[in-house]
Design goal:
Layout: E1 8-15, E2 21-23, E3 26-36, E4 41-46, E5 50-57, E6 59-64, E7 67-72, E8 75-79, E9 84-89, E10 95-104, H1 115-120, E11 127-128, H2 131-145, H3 151-170, H4 189-200, H5 208-215, H6 219-230, H7 234-252, H8 257-263, H9 269-280, H10 284-293
Antiparallel strand pairs: 1-3, 2-3, 3-10, 4-9, 5-8, 5-10, 6-7, 6-9, 8-11
Amino acid sequence: MTLDKYGRLFEYNREFFDTRQTYDRIDLFQICELMLAAGAEVPAHRQVCHEISYIVSGEGTFYTDGAAIAVRQGDVHVTARGQTHRITAGRARNMRYICVGFEFRGASDGGEDDLPAFYAAPPPRVFQAREDLRYLFGGLVREFFAENPYRDQMIALSVRQILILVARGFRGGSAAPLPMPDGCPRSGATAYGVLQYVDANIRAVKSVREIANALSFTENYLSHMFKAKVGVTLQGYIRAKKAEEAAALLREGKHTVREIAAVLGFDSPQSFARAFKKERGCTPSAYRNTDKDTV
């Protein structure tokens, strides 16, 4: 194992501190993905721009102005310009993460969705990224890593979406769905809202009761209504979607079975393996090996 002086096992780093790249009124200072060895540390440094960090795998601790925040796979953390920032990987495992450094260009437009104001004083905590946000982080790194057609347009779109979705995540962007607008067909509107809720929150959702409480329905009504409209039980739909999400994570090859079990809310790797086998006909490990054989 080869480490640099900060314990980085690998690092992909594009910096624009001297010649900033501007995308849709956002100055991009840095896009970086790195793997810190277990117990390694990025020394304290003062942020010259805002920074969003996404934990791809592992766990560790982020220190902001001396305050410690534990982070794990799937967490998103924001550090504001001017804050002092230090990062340590957990002692048991390596920690891989992506960070995006940026600043807003020009005056703020104000209003309820004032992104510059949000990033100037971010909440001192983390939140778990949803699938759409996780995809955008990885996609942004890939756009910088390869010279593809329409690259700048894709980077501009990805950066803006990441900034908005991170702000939504901290402000509770996984709320219950809105009522169907006037003029839309009403048949099955509640069932469709439940589908959207489960799809958007599949990593966190565990039970029908939890969904019923979140959407202000009784568990009995929600179960019967969903089965009548969709044709499968709500619990069965949750199991199928969790298996689908697990299969996608297994194909990525970035996470262990234990990590995937934790991310999807299973009590243990064993309970995850049983649920996955029931849906897919094989264990998570066997699925991963089969997928490799077909590449």
